[in-house]
Amino acid sequence: GLSQYSSDPRTEWDLSTYSTREQVLEAMRNLRYKGGNTFTGLALTHVLEQNLKPDAGARLEAEKLVILLTDGKSQDDANLAAQTLKNLGIEIFAIGVKNADEAELRQVASEPLELTVYNVLDFPLLASLVSKLTWVLCTRIKERSHKETAGSTVKDTPPNTGPQLSPTDLKISAVTSKSMHLAWSPPLRPPKKYRVVYYPSKGGTPKEVVLEGAESSVQLSNLTSHTEYLVSVIPVYDTAAGDGLRGVTSTLPLSSPRSLRVSELSHNSLRLSWKAAQGATHYLVLCSAAPDGAED
């Protein structure tokens, strides 16, 4: 579903209006931009009261996600309206463009903020968020769907999330150019297994590690240097599933040689020396004559 807002929110279409991807894309192509003021609190209240109702297509059992896209600071109390949604279990993702107030975005969005708050300098740069945001949203929905499906098959299993079935306190440490270490606090009821899923935020093939339920840490290796990775730790039970932990971090760039020195100069030779780059197995040395006017 989609709503636009200024001083008066307007529903463009409800959750139940279209049933195919092509219909949604066509509706998006025909969308007219609504200019005006920035009453974000009023818009969030509109979404709750109008767009997330069963007669607008909102299913009671489905995960409720709201993506707020704004290019300015709200002229009313967005935080109070956002807190009302979050208290009802609705997750809010906040995306700012141009003149958006990042402090306000962080107030409005749900935790963890490193996965729910985004800010870009101009509208064309929104394209750079698509892959990461898609991954985060789909992961959240899959986790919820898996939990609902598993929980509904066994009546004597309470649909309990939180400390009973879900791990907490994900810590990412010992990050290098090609590895990182994940650790977490296990739930009160140990799972049968953990699925650890990770891949670059800008797109790539997801990789997965499966651990026994007694484990609470894992070392991820053979990663790409200087790359932002999204990670999920998902507990798996025989008859139920807990919420997964999610995190994001970047591997370090490859280390560089330092302190380049030139010595033993002659008419046709020179010697170079440097401090070694950690982990390097070879060096490629390039040289060329300085252009006219530049220092030799």
Automatic annotation (TrEMBL):
Residues 166-255 form the Fibronectin type-III domain. Residues 147-167 are annotated as: Disordered. It is found in: Secreted, Extracellular space, Extracellular matrix. InterPro entries: ECM_Assembly_Org, FN3_dom, FN3_sf, Ig-like_fold, VWF_A, vWFA_dom_sf. It comes from Myiagra hebetior. Gene3D superfamilies: Immunoglobulins, von Willebrand factor, type A domain. Residues 1-133 form the VWFA domain. Keywords: Extracellular matrix, Secreted. It holds the Pfam family fn3. Residues 150-167 have a biased composition (Polar residues). The lineage of its organism: Eukaryota, Metazoa, Chordata, Craniata, Vertebrata. This is COKA1 protein. The keyword Secreted applies.
